Amino acid sequence: MALFNQHVKAKKFLGQHFLKDLQIAKDIADALSIDPPQRKIIEVGPGMGVLTQYLIEKPFDLKVVELDRDSVAYLKEHFPALEGRIIEGDFLKLPLNELLDEHGGVIGNFPYNISSQILFHCLDYKEHVLEIVGMFQKEVAERIAAPHGKKDYGIISVLLQTYYKTEYLFTVHEHVFNPPPKVKSAVVRLTRKEDVQLPVDYSFFRNVVKTAFNQRRKTLRNALKPILMGVSLDHPFMDLRAEQLSVDDFAQLALFIHDQQK
Q1: Over 46-115, what HEC string results?
Q2: pLDDT value at position 102?
Q3: Domain boundary at 136, 164, 192, which?
Q4: Are residues 84 and 147 in the same domain?
Q5: Per-10-residue mean pLDDT for the chain, 262 residues long?
Q6: CB environment 137-153: b (16+ within 10 A), e (fewer)
Q7: Does residue 187 sit in helix, strand or coil?
Q8: Claim to verify: residue 144 and residue 233 sit in the same structural domain
Q9: Cα separation of 187 and 134, whole Å?
Q10: Are 49 and 137 in the same domain?
């Protein structure tokens, strides 16, 4: 514990916040399914192994990805079970198709400054990421799980909910971290839906969604102008704003635009 505290004090200068409530760490680990057994799991940013200690007890084929050299050294010293399972590098640059199969999972107390990027990276490999469990800044967690019609509903809501069932599991308060952050956190679980068939290519769909929300206060008739060249505006959705459309509505809209551009 003395070494742990010494490491925490050193890392405070880097602006990191360490989870000290072990029950919450266990709850996060338990939120990840173990079906099927021996599934491949990647933990992002294990730090000093607060979450890792519960993951290594489960029947997972676990690998951890850590960019910080000091944390890697700490993990190697204090978690001999991770021998050969530590990937020292940037998760956002990893080819997840080479590390996971179709039953793979990603878990972590995600660094808040790149948490959205982590999710978009998982989306790029959605065929291999069956499940995601993570701790996020509370506002980001609320956006992930927000239904259409709510102010928190946005690009990340639509793209994730297209392929994943999203669940806001529980809120995590500031006092369980050392040092306490200025924001609350929350844990979210995403479980991949079966047999999702978009009527258009994912990259086209993603472009429609991003363009629609880039000027979210405008009606889609105006917000989508950058991609509506030569497209008929005679569609009932055009007089709505992006936040009013469900995931299925966006799929229909993307198909309409795609067909009009042929």
Answers
A1: CCCCCCHHHHCCCCCEEEEEECCHHHHHHHHHHCHHHCCCEEECCHHHCCHHHHCCCCEEEEEECCHHHH
A2: 83
A3: 192
A4: yes
A5: 41 58 96 90 95 96 96 95 96 96 93 94 96 96 96 97 98 89 93 94 96 94 88 86 97 92 74
A6: bbebbbbbbbebeeebb
A7: strand
A8: no
A9: 6
A10: yes
- The pLDDT value recorded for residue 11 is 45
Q: Which two tokens mark 93?
A: 């640059």
Which amino acid does the sequence have at 50?
A: V
The reply to whether 97 and 227 lie within a common domain is no
Do 53 and 167 lie in one domain? The reply is: yes
Q: Which two tokens stand for residue 79?
A: 């978690």
Whether residues 172 and 240 share a domain: the answer is no
Q: Is residue 221 part of a domain?
A: yes
The CA distance from 224 to 240, in Å, is 11
State residue 4's pLDDT score.
43
Query: For the purposes of burial, counting CB atoms within 10 Å of the CB of 244, is it exposed (0-12), middle (13-18) or buried (19 or more)?
Result: middle
Same domain, 153 and 235: no
* Range(s) of the domain holding residue 47: 2-192
Q: Cβ contacts of residue 45 below 8 Å, gap of 6+?
A: 65, 66, 67, 91, 108, 109, 110, 111
**117: amino acid identity, one letter:** Q
